[in-house]
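Handout, tutorial session.
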Amino acid sequence: MTQAPATPKAARRRHDREIIALAVPAFGALVAEPLFLMADSAIVGHLGTAQLAGLAIASALLMTAVSIFVFLAYATTAAVARRVGSGDLRAAIQQGMDGIWLALLLGAAVVAVVLPTAPGLVELFGASDTAAPYAITYLRISALGIPAMLVVLAATGVLRGLQNTKTPLYVAIGGFVANGVLNVVLVYGAGLGIAGSAWGTVIAQFAMAAVYLVVVVRGARRHHASLRPDAAGIRACAKAGAPLLVRTISLRAILMIATAVAARLGDADVAAHQIILSLWSLLAFALDAIAIAGQAIIGRYLGADDAPGARDVCRRMVQWGIAAGVVLGVLVIVTRPLFVPLFTSDPAVQDAALPALIVVALSQPICGIVFVLDGVLMGAGDGPYLAWAMLLTLAVFAPVALLVPVLGGGLTAVWGAMTLMMAVRMVTLWARYRSGRWAVTGATR
């Protein structure tokens, strides 16, 4: 006797359970990085406006240096999840090990570039004479933690692909607590100022990387996967991640342009921009928790040759993204008078931040759709389309943002341009989603 097909309501409940089981722990892990930045901003912000402005510029550069390699997490998640769906755990973990070796190589290369070029990079951002020394100090010290940050990305991708988002949550909680304690002790207790904040973050990142390596290595030994670097495997990881690298560089270029424009509006505006960007990153990662669940679930469904299941769960995740965006937008509007004073007592910074936060709040439902569909297409391995879509978005955003200092509108106009950017992304991703051409099945795409 054949089993009756699941009703639409039963299918939704099953998808909801899958999404919640992966997304809730993923949320905790995803917000670790913006929480690191928010903790740094809160601690450094009370040292002075110039220090906070320096942190804003250095953080934008540092996050660009790290985030352009986010494919180490995203591509690894998709590839490992497909192997899991096809039932080959040994190959799944081996692919993850290749990603970790690639992360170490890339991390060493980035450090070698950032350390000697830090003053020039800060100057390129248009930092004021008062903010530049703090930006250079923070950037040079924090750059030493880049290899650890990239290893964390790659190892997180391995665990997500294995449908395990709880371990990254535990590591993120430990890292956040360690970062906060170290920052307070080194900034105020040891009197190191902004340098202490940077050293605290570096130490916390290396501790997180060490924990991840222990977990992944144990899994590799259990499934008899090799721990040695494999040149062919590393090259394959790099090739698979290349389109996502283009996509991420384009996105980071958008964020760098926004920060550079804010810097040219003055120290108060760029300090306010840093506060808003910290919140925006937190909101983005909260929404991206659903996208992370999507990467893992979509990859597994497609690896198991179940395209209809992948399309069904995608539709459900879009609904989750819209609802989450509405809730987050309301929270921003309600809490904004309480949020900004946590980071600064400067009235000029507060006056610049409060109206821009309204724009951020209104954009959250759009962001919900964008982050979910971005995750779905990553989980499907649809990197080339994502690369072209983001290049188009950059081409629309750049001229609009660069006109802000000329046409006026201040920081609120900068964040209006950011909302336009998200709207363009939504249109391009929705078109791909509706086409169905992303749903390619098999253990590899």
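The second record follows below. Compare its token runs with those of the first.
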Amino acid sequence: MPPSVTTGPLRAVRPLRLLVRTLTIVATLLPVWWLVARRLLWAALRASPARLSPLDERAAQRLREACERLGVIFVKLGQLLGVRADFLPPPYVVQLARLQDSVTPVPFRVVKPALEREFGMPLHLAFEAFEETPLATASIGQVHRARYAGREVVVKFLRPDTRELLALDLRVLRFWARLGRRIDPRRQWDLIDDILDAIEAGFFEEADFAAEREHAERLREQLAGIPGVYVPYTVPARCTPNVLTLEFCSGVRIANVEQIRAWGLDGDALLNRLVELYARMMLLDGYYHADPHPGNFLVQPDGTLVLLDFGLVRELSEPTRRTLYTAARAALSGDIGRVVECLYASGMLPPDAPRAEAERFVVSFARLSVAFNQDTRGRVTALEDLLRGYPNLKFVIPPDLLYAFRLVQMLEGVASNFRPGWNVVADGGQGLAAAFTAFLLDGPPDGSASPFDRFVDTLRLGFGTAARTLVDRLGILVRVLAR
């Protein structure tokens, strides 16, 4: 369990620090609000793009600078917004994208003594060479290039005072949430509390660099056999709970579409590989990298996809994967009853959902004529119309699958740099189908599939149409529920 941020010396000075931090946040964001308000006013007056564009540029820059000054929570928010090229105007996407790996760095005069305390030796003895200028900076970590034992490495460490600043900001936001609840006691304040709890838990998970090293090593071993995917090795002798040293890998961020195309690489093939990779990690191994933002992927000139940043990893339990396997085989063979049983077993349908209605829904879902239609909006609308016809079926996302559904939106945010409007269902279908086929042919995680079952699956998937149709429909269902 991560240490609670509500304990410690902050409690004794809470009122004064709350007030000072609140005033700091308001004062830092006020210039941004003013610029946005001016922009909205001119837009309402139907001003020309020549007048609006400079306001957008200035507001976007001020927003990025404000997030940097305010620290970890606000940087995280900016990172989330910065991957949605299909949601924000281009100037905001460009500026907020810089928060992925180019936050204002901690000066080297602070970095050097901090690392020497971690290693218990002078920095020049810990490394043969160490570059003072950081390679990348982010919300909680900073990365420097170095050389160790004749090998090029990167050194990632926790930015000083990050834990203390997070604790204070969480107190400020929780204080204002409590005040807002007293003024207007609606449910959204509970939602804000849930979000803050998730941020707190996620921070302490990402800030545990010893656990991140274990994640990196496990994923490196797990993904070693997948062509075109690479995970850098770690250097255990230069790793601590607050420092992670890994192999240096060259390449460009996946959002650098211009360079990737200049290399002659096929963007669609790269995105399909990304989709297949994530589907394989979840379905075949049940252990997956759960933070797919653009700063966490490098692309090399030969098209190799390099995974970075392993602070956030999730697992899909064996029972869940076994249920998904059983449901997929049952759907392909037309066993409606078994499919319905799997919906209940997975938690997607609550126990009190009427079974007869669930069976009718599955039959209607199987007959839904949406496969291979490139109009994704029409396919999604068709499923939404179908769901409205079954008001007593309240589909829910089980906790075990919550991050898996969240990944759909994050991957679409990454892909939107190549093609605005790209989505997993219409454009990543080839990758999904490849992973799905491997999942069925590999058998359930407990290895209980009989040789006969695998032979039948091989014949069925050899023709391909049934599997691709099922993947298409399941992809639409995931997209709808992920909303």
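Points raised in discussion: The longest strand covers residues 141-148.
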